[in-house]
UniProtKB/TrEMBL annotation:
GO terms for molecular function: ATP binding. GO terms for biological process: DNA recombination; DNA repair. Residues 122-152 are annotated as: Disordered. Its main location: nucleus. This is Actin-related protein 8.
Amino acid sequence: MDYGAGDVCQALSWMFHKSAFPYKNWNENIPRDVFLMRNLYQDFCHVNLDVCGPQEKTFLVDHPGDIINKYTLQVGDECIISPLSLFYTDLLKITGPKMTKIQNRQLSDAEDPFDAEFLRETGRKRETADPGNNESQQLEGLNESQPTANPDEDIVVDTLEGVSGEVALAPGQVLSLDAAILQSIDSCPNEELKRKMYSSILIIGGGVKVHGLNLWLQNKLALQIPYIYKTEQLEIVTSPKDIDPASTVWKGAAVMSCLESASELWINQNEWNRYGLKILRERAPFIW
């Protein structure tokens, strides 16, 4: 998705300046002022319908080599409207046109029998046997001792032929946060995996550091999840292991970069353009 916390903070800034923002020298091109608006977003904004009406807030502007200035402003609905722009994306248009990017399928390679298309649409059939059934165990032993007549029978197709699984969006259409989650989980190959995905959802980034945002998202998803995929628990995690959501993704990258084999995992642009998805067979650190 082509938007994030920066766009939400810009929307908040736009609304603040429409209601006589006291810090007149604020400039979106100065990093310290950008950090100031981000802190105001995290300190003042919320998603709590029980908190309404104007409230008086104060903040400090401390620039190097200058005196500390204290400002007071009256805030109202802008503190709840700006974080809700993650769910009602029309408000984000004030920061410019947005788009939703969907990864296109890689074309089949006739010279590679195990190309990306093969890996995507096929998988190994997992046969399960009842350990308490002696006959099943005997038949399983016979099957293991005899060669398979047709090895292609071990391959099953996960997706129907002619169904690409891609979602076409109208020009200028931007998915909201809840719609993007639903679309992503709906792309999972089986019902059991979809139930697991719906039971625990991890949201990271500085934009989620708003009081009540996780409960709002949980209620939005609970109303849209298909009945067959509903679970007893729907958990929205925003700070795993008490880590700052804004640095969670960087924490994982920092740990991964310390591995001795990290230098072997890099995929440069030329390699990706040449080999596409199938290069992950050689470089991906996890089995997929």
